[in-house]
Design brief:
Structural class: alpha+beta
Strand order of the largest sheet: 2-13-10-3-9
Bound molecules: 8-hydroxy-2-methylquinoline-6-carboxamide
Number of strands: 26
Number of domains: 5
Shape: globular
CATH architecture of the largest domain: 2-Layer Sandwich
Number of helices: 25
Largest sheet: 5 strands, mixed
């Protein structure tokens, strides 16, 4: 070896060592909170690394400590489809709610004794998914709608406590789930600096964190004091899953990911409530804002048995801290007309700071509530705000009622379209009877139709809907699909480019899913979960439209009231016309079929499903099994490989048992569908 090459090799060795040293200091400083060297020493090492990398750009890799702020500003965030949906959590507000949660968990698991829970503070930040391939950080995405989020990789890379590479032996793929947040001290410093420069300040740490993470320029994000805690695992490949959630947290920590130090394993509902009280007492002295605590069933097999409802797991709950309250004066009450015509009394308040934001509007819910609380205009009222819930008028300070306080009266005619207002039967809500004749209802229906969880037409928000309806350009959702450059040009502040973007978003929205489409129609009482159930159960719009009351009720979680609304909706000629026009415009969705990732792993097996399944319609489960190569049959015979027995299974279960056919429960079915492997 000549001297030049030898020197080069020595330099490369020093380079590698320097990187390791810096990574170790980062770990000690950001993850363990136990810095080993003074900041000046760390800065000196970083400077050395930068110089070496400048001389040898070919040595720079994406996970180098110098590569946190590299990329240029983006035009927009790319979409990322989550491999495993990102769930939200159900809320509990009282000790009773927690006792009920724990009781349901024990009932479903058939447990007598106490269940173990992993308990942790619930951070007030943004949920994030971070993917590591062979230990290297490759992608970060926001939750978005749970199925698809935004690619915020460049921004998350700038967070110092975010390791660019995992430590130790790591599986081929790890998706860690966590929360990005801004500690209170950093938030206050950021705001003080902004105020000193005469710039706008953020209302609370959560908004500051959200605004910082959704920066198109990572250089800006890099200046924001963001931090991250991890609380779970999404997708993974090559990992021997442990038995408990708490062991997953320990694994995350071993890999060098920051896990909240307050996390504890507790016993039963009592343990949860004790934890809640302890954290609650220390809430103000924590370095970050939290809005409650989270309890998760610790045993992973039990989590699998419990499964999910709609968008939240049955094995976890967020126990929220009490709402914050403030006093202010009720200036006036206006009635807002909703999508289904419901008139909601809205309090116009003297602005008041409560729960970290300034509130000037609050809901009064409905007239029954107004009467029950005896609220009058001019009253001093208690405004209450809990976390992300809409502020409400909680009660009245009767002793401060002025002599000229005026009662609140429900108008007899719609404040928007003047149609009569009616109260149906013993319903608490009064409704405008104008239907599509009422521009407020038209606007709300269109807004709902275009909203993110419905057809997701980007750019078609409140303001634009307002303009479209007021200009007479859109009466029903079908009209959206005949908009053109010319018609849009009539609108204020609508340039050619924005019109173009909107038309493209509308074009994209034509390709949707049956469930989203059903939800978008805005049938009363048909929320996202019901729409998904109906879509999975019926598979096609035609099948659903032909179904009578009885058949609609066979869909999971659909009772007589919802069934009646659905049948009524499709019987209405005006609605049928809108549906025809939507389909004629090319709105479409893929036929229901689950495609197996790798061949036909269940080929040769015959399944019979009987009884009621909790998590999906039987037809959907059968389709999913068929997609994996299995046969799904309606009757039990000696050729049946497995019987899946749901709730209230009857004669087929007896027959299978007589014939010695293996009998599995729904959890086993879910495992088969998830792992795409035959039952074990
Ligand atoms: O800290 C949080 N905000 C938080 C949110 C913590 C958790 O353990 C979560 C969560 C959202 C969903 N767990 C899930 C499953």
């Amino acid at each position: 070896m000549d001297t030049a090459t030898a020197a080069e090799a020595e330099l490369q060795r020093r380079f590698a060592e320097l990187r390791r040293e810096i990574e170790q200091h980062n770990y000690r400083y950001y993850i363990l909170d136990e810095p080993q060297v003074p900041d000046a020493e760390y800065d000196r090492l970083m400077q050395q690394l930068r110089e070496l990398e400048a001389a040898h750009p070919e040595w720079v890799t994406v996970d180098s400590p110098t590569q946190r702020v590299g990329t240029a500003p983006a035009d927009e965030f790319a979409e990322v489809r989550h491999r495993v949906p990102m769930l939200s959590l159900d809320n509990a507000f009282t000790a009773d709610d927690v006792l009920n949660f724990d009781r349901r968990v024990r009932e479903r698991l058939g447990r007598e004794g106490a269940v173990r829970y992993s308990a942790e503070p619930k951070l007030d930040g943004l949920a994030i998914s971070v993917i590591f391939e062979h230990g290297v950080f490759v992608r970060a995405a926001t939750r978005g709608d749970g199925a698809t989020g935004e690619d915020v990789t460049s921004n998350v890379r700038t967070i110092r406590s975010m390791p660019l590479r995992l430590r130790g032996a790591v599986p081929a793929l790890v998706e860690a789930r966590g929360e990005v947040f801004m500690p209170v001290a950093g938030f206050e410093r950021l705001n003080a600096e902004a105020a000193a420069r005469g710039e706008k300040t953020f209302v609370n740490p959560r908004n500051a964190a959200a605004g910082s993470l959704r920066q198109l320029d990572p250089q800006v994000t890099a200046t924001r004091p963001l931090e991250i805690f991890f609380y779970g695992l999404g997708a993974q490949e090559g990992l021997d899953l442990p038995v408990r959630h708490s062991e997953i947290l320990a694994l995350l920590a071993e890999w060098g990911l920051r896990v909240c130090a307050e996390t504890r394993v507790v016993e039963g509902a009592e343990g949860c409530l004790d934890y809640y009280r302890q954290i609650g007492a220390r809430r103000a002295s924590l370095a970050y804002q939290i809005d409650g605590v989270v309890y998760k069933v610790d045993e992973l097999a039990a989590q699998a048995t419990l499964g999910f409802v709609a968008r939240a797991p049955r094995w976890a709950v967020a126990h929220k801290f009490p709402a914050e309250e403030a006093l202010t004066r009720l200036r006036d009450v206006e009635f807002q007309v909703g999508r289904t015509g419901a008139l909601t009394p809205v309090a116009r308040l003297e602005p008041v700071f409560v729960g970290g934001v300034t509130v000037s509007n609050a809901t009064l819910h409905n007239m029954d509530e107004v009467l029950r609380k005896d609220v009058r205009i001019g009253d001093t009222v208690v405004v209450r705000r809990a976390g992300d819930v809409i502020p409400e008028v909680a009660r009245v300070m009767l002793e401060r009622r002025p002599a000229d306080a005026r009662p609140i009266v429900m108008p007899a005619a719609c404040p928007v379209c003047a149609s009569p207002v009616q109260r149906e039967g013993d319903e608490a809500v009064a409704r405008c009877t104008g239907g599509y004749r009422c521009s407020a209802q038209r606007k709300e229906r269109l807004r709902h139709f275009a909203s993110r969880r419905a057809l997701d037409i980007e750019g078609l928000g409140e303001k634009l809907v307002e303009q479209l309806v007021d200009a007479g350009l859109a009466q029903s959702p079908a009209d959206i699909f005949v908009l053109s450059q010319q018609s849009l040009a009539e609108l204020d502040r609508m340039g050619e480019k924005s019109a173009d973007n909107l038309l493209r978003a509308i074009e994209r929205a034509k390709h949707t899913t049956f469930a989203r489409f059903l939800f978008a129609l805005g049938i009363r009482d048909v929320g996202e979960a019901t729409a998904a159930n109906l879509a999975a159960h019926f598979g096609s719009l035609e099948a659903l439209m032909q179904a009578d009351l009885h058949r609609v009720q066979q869909a999971p979680d659909v009772g007589p009231v919802i069934a009646a609304r659905v049948v009524e909706f499709f019987a209405d000629p005006a609605n049928r016309e809108v549906l025809e026009r939507l389909q004629a415009a090319g709105v479409n969705w893929p036929a229901p079929r689950v495609i197996a990732a790798d061949g036909a792993p269940l080929a040769g097996l015959t399944f019979v499903l009987t009884g009621t399944l909790e998590s999906m319609a039987r037809e959907a489960a059968e389709d999913a099994l068929r997609a994996l190569g299995a046969k799904a049959s309606g009757s039990v015979s000696a050729k049946t490989s497995y019987l899946i027995a749901g709730r209230d299974a009857g004669s087929k279960l007896r027959k299978a048992s007589d014939l010695g056919v293996p009998i599995l429960d729904e959890a086993a079915l879910q495992r088969v569908l998830e792992t795409k492997r035959p039952p074990t």
